[in-house]
Amino acid sequence: MLRVFNDLTRRVEPFQPQSPGEVSLYVCGVTVYDLCHLGHARCYVTWDVVRRYFEFSGYRVHHVQNFTDVDDKILNRARELGEDPIHLARRYEGEYFADMDRLGVLRAHSYPRATEHIGQMLSLVDCLVHSRNAYPTHDGTVYFDVASFPRYGKLSGRDLADLSQRTRLDEPDPSKHNPADFALWKGAKPGESSWDSPWGAGRPGWHLECSAMAIDKLGKTIDIHAGGMDLIFPHHENEIAQSEACTHEPFVHYWLHNGFVNVDAEKMSKSLGNFSTIRQLLDRYDPQAVRYFLLQTHYRQDCDFSSEPLEAADNALKRLQRSLADRQEALAAPTAAVTEQILQLNRAFTEAMDDDFNTPRAVASLWEARARLGDLEGADRAGAGHVVARIRELGAVLGLDLTARAEPEGDRLAAVSRIEDQLREIAARFEDGDLVEARQASAPQVIEALLTRRTRAKQARDFATADGIRAQLSELGITLADQPGGATRWELATGAAPR
Q1: If we measure between CA atoms, which residue out of 24, 489, 476 comes closest to residue 225?
Q2: Which candidate, 28, 60, 22, 24, places its Cα nearest to that of 44?
Q3: Which residues contact 225 (CB under 8 A, 6 or more apart)?
């Protein structure tokens, strides 16, 4: 049975949807004023995997993800660029889809926009004003009265008295009943986008938008509400308060949040200069490698972006793809041994994913299944392709394409030619006729001569020489994969540069 960590109860719980066989999933979307950053990659790959696993498990998923297309950030950016705010928002919606498509993130079933749900938002504010959970001020702003909702703080664990005191010092506002009260509807300012309301022209507050759109698309109670941990407070705390104060129903049964993103062990921020967009990341790394990298960290843990583990992920993914390609054809019907390997793989994969979507363990199960292929011999070996097919099917549940993709030969040769001089220096270290001749050859020919020398060394049990050749090639970013039968395949790692 699937178990998830519910941030509302702070414990792992069995997942039980409201309607058998169906899951309502609301994911907080982006504010469309700029290109998406690494945190967005982490967030939306995470919830894409969650959705894929539910569908793999037989659930019908109703996946909704909003676009915040009216906000201070959008208005400020539009003013800077001299662009209409709505036009700006639509442009960055397109950029969002371009990035997520490259990462293999499935499209949600619905992408509600804030500006297209003003009526639903006004109805929610009106409900809260009439129930005395909210109050208007002289400038047309309507605040939610946090003291009127006794359960305020139940998600974040924040103490209202302490929160009110700190807010009083940081953001003094004499028009509020309580310093911690938050805006549902903001009175219009000159030059800003605004809509008419019973309290005067204005625009919705950020927290209000998600409640109104989620309720409109998925109903008063949602199975799963997901997003980054940075949204727990105040955004998701405020969503709970305003939604439940109006509907008198539980707003969400399971709150799930992904961890923060660090860059080289420091929290990502523009002030630190380590802020990077997805576009910049994908200009350097294969999108599938980025996805593989993200899957190696449990979604609730913080994730550290840096070049070394990203390159390692790229190499690991290629090794897995190539190793499966060697066994991809099923030459016979599955034997008992092949069927048992498939059952073991299914069991290990589902146990991992049922354990709060433990993708590191799920990825490990694919590697373990690949390793067990070496145990198959004779008729069993002829049916190994059935195991390979299942490994690929389960990889697709994680959004991974485990089919080996051929690298254009021209690109491969151009990449290795950049380290030709360094390869010749390695060849010069060996007193060997073939290698002396190879020093005048092209880079690929030098590599092949070194591999021949390594093979002879292994046959002579001269493992020091064999390991030395591997180590020196590795320093140049060239990885070796020994194949059945004694052949060796080489690959130039992504991002490899002369040392």
Answers
A1: 24
A2: 28
A3: 26, 27, 28, 214, 236, 239, 251, 252, 254, 255, 256
Tokens 């040769």 appear where? 413
What is the CB neighbour count within 10 angstroms for residue 136?
19
Residue range(s) in the chain whose domain bears CATH number 3.40.50.620: 17-267
Residue pLDDT, tens place only, 455-491: 888 888 888 888 888 888 877 878 787 765 667 878 7
The DSSP code sequence of 220-261 is SSEEEEEEEGGGIIIIIHHHHHHHHHHH-S-SEEEEEEE--E
Q: How far, in Å, CA of 479 to CA of 481, rounded?
A: 7
In contact, 40 and 33? CB cutoff 8 Å: no
Rounded Cα–Cα distance for residues 352 and 397 (Å) = 13
Average pLDDT over residues 365-392: 92
pLDDT at residue 265, as a whole number: 67
First CA to last CA distance, the chain? 50
pLDDT for 434 beyond 80? no
Q: Give per-residue burial for 162-176: e unless 16+ CB within 10 Å, then b.
A: ebbeebeeeeeeeeb
Give the pLDDT confidence of 130-150 residue by residue, as tens digits: 999 999 999 999 999 999 999
Report which of 17, 12, 117, 13 is spatially closest to residue 58, judged by C-alpha positions.
17
Question: What are the residue ranges of CATH 1.20.120.640 in the chain?
Answer: 327-397
d(CA 446, CA 490): 12
**Sorting pLDDT into bands at 50, 70 and 90, what band is 495?**
very low
Q: How far is CA 117 from CA 135, 200, 210, 458, in A?
A: 21, 18, 10, 70
Which two tokens mark 58?
């037989």
Domain 17-267 bears CATH identifier 3.40.50.620: yes
Summary count for the chain: helices (H), strands (E): 19, 15
Task: Report yes or no: 27 and 257 within 8 Å, Cβ to Cβ.
Answer: no
The DSSP symbol for 70 reads S
391, pLDDT greater than 70:
yes
Tell me: the pLDDT tens digits for 291-339?
999 999 999 999 998 888 999 999 999 999 988 987 767 778 899 999 9
Rounded Cα–Cα distance for residues 122 and 187 (Å): 13
CA distances from residue 426 to 191, 201, 446, 470, 479 in whole angstroms, order as listed: 68, 74, 9, 11, 15
Q: Which helix (H) or strand (E) holds 52?
A: helix 38-56
Q: How many CB atoms lie within 10 A of CB 345?
A: 21
The C-alpha angle 457, 459, 460, rounded to 5 degrees, equals 65
Q: Which fold has domain 327-397?
A: Four Helix Bundle (Hemerythrin (Met), subunit A) (1.20.120)
More confident residue, 361 or 422: 361
